[in-house]
Automatic annotation (TrEMBL):
Organism lineage string: Bacteria, Pseudomonadati, Pseudomonadota, Gammaproteobacteria, Oceanospirillales
Name under which the protein is recorded: ABC transporter permease
GO (cellular component) term, any one: plasma membrane
Source organism of the structure: Vreelandella aquamarina
Family matches, as Gene3D superfamilies: MetI-like
Pfam families the record matches: BPD_transp_1
Length: 297
């Protein structure tokens, strides 16, 4: 046994490759393309199948859902969607969820932008330790903070309000936003700051008109992650609300009654829950693509 050097290996490969005819190479390339497309198609099929089945169930009656498995609705009905849009307890769940998600995104981005700029541009005693301490907040499960938040908000009168859930989510979203934005801000040269000061820009004017547009891709990525966490988080939102600010996730549990589960309404509510996420991804898709390529994420 002996090891071939690079030249001998290349010569051996060229000899083997030269023995194959153009038809054989085309056949091998065709098999490779077919295998890649088959695996991609299988992956997309497995990803889309649960969503399709959810939509399929939302357009069926409970008797049809429980009767037999059908690939498409035999008796197409929109009663499940009509019931959601005509019942205030249902559609207000979506309104409540969107309100506290929007409040959380606004508060978080307003706090995280200057904080991330400070971590990116300045050096102070304990800056790295403070930055690491912020990240440790993401390591704790939300259940740890349920009792403190409940007692605090009940004492100050914030229980069952949208701002209560928004502030509770800030505990996790602000460190995440600072961590993402700091990576984007550090990629911007400090000479831009100095040039703006020489040109007579005040810090607020420079930060809003020059610096923020330069990191808009990072802001888009950050808003995407903020929305994703706040929209799907249920434990804090369920505990800190009772009636006036209940999220849609809590209201969906009402479909389970003594007479059984209203599968059609539950499926329709699930479809409507996916729609806001699709809209957010659509509007920030370009920023997300640039952000994943340029930023810390």
């Amino acid at each position: 046994m002996y090891r071939l050097d690079n030249a001998q290996q290349g010569e051996k490969y060229n000899t083997i490759f030269s023995r194959t005819t153009p038809a054989q190479r085309r056949k091998r390339n065709a098999r490779s393309r077919f295998r890649s497309r088959f695996l991609l198609g299988l992956y997309l099929f497995l990803m889309i199948l649960p969503i399709y089945w959810l939509i399929n169930m939302s357009l069926q009656t409970n008797s049809e859902i429980l009767g037999s498995m059908t690939l498409w609705p035999k008796n197409l009905t929109f009663d499940n969607y009509i019931g959601i849009f005509t019942n205030s307890s249902w559609y207000m769940g979506y309104v409540n969820s969107m309100l506290y998600v929007a409040l959380n995104m606004l508060i978080t981005i307003c706090v995280a932008l200057p904080a991330a700029y400070a971590f990116s541009r300045y050096r102070f005693i304990g800056d790295k330790h403070l930055f690491f301490w912020l990240l440790t907040n993401l390591m704790a499960p939300p259940a740890v903070f349920l009792l403190p938040y409940f007692q605090l908000y009940y004492s100050v009168g914030l229980f069952d309000t949208h701002i209560a859930v928004a502030l509770a989510h800030c505990l996790f979203n602000i460190p995440l936003a600072i961590w993402i934005l700091e990576g984007f801000m550090s990629s911007v040269p400090k000479e831009i700051d100095e040039t703006a000061y020489i040109d007579g820009y005040s810090f607020p004017r420079f930060f809003i008109k020059i610096f923020i547009p330069m990191i808009r891709s990072g802001i888009g990525v950050t808003l995407f992650f903020l929305f994703m966490f706040s929209w799907v988080e249920l434990l804090l939102a369920r505990t800190l609300t009772a009636t006036d600010a209940q999220p849609i996730g809590m209201i969906m549990t009402r479909t389970s009654t003594a007479s059984g589960i209203d599968w059609g309404t539950l499926a329709a509510a699930g479809v409507l829950t996916i729609v806001p996420g699709i809209l957010v991804v659509y509007f920030v898709r370009n920023h997300i693509a640039k952000g994943f390529a340029l930023g810390r994420t």
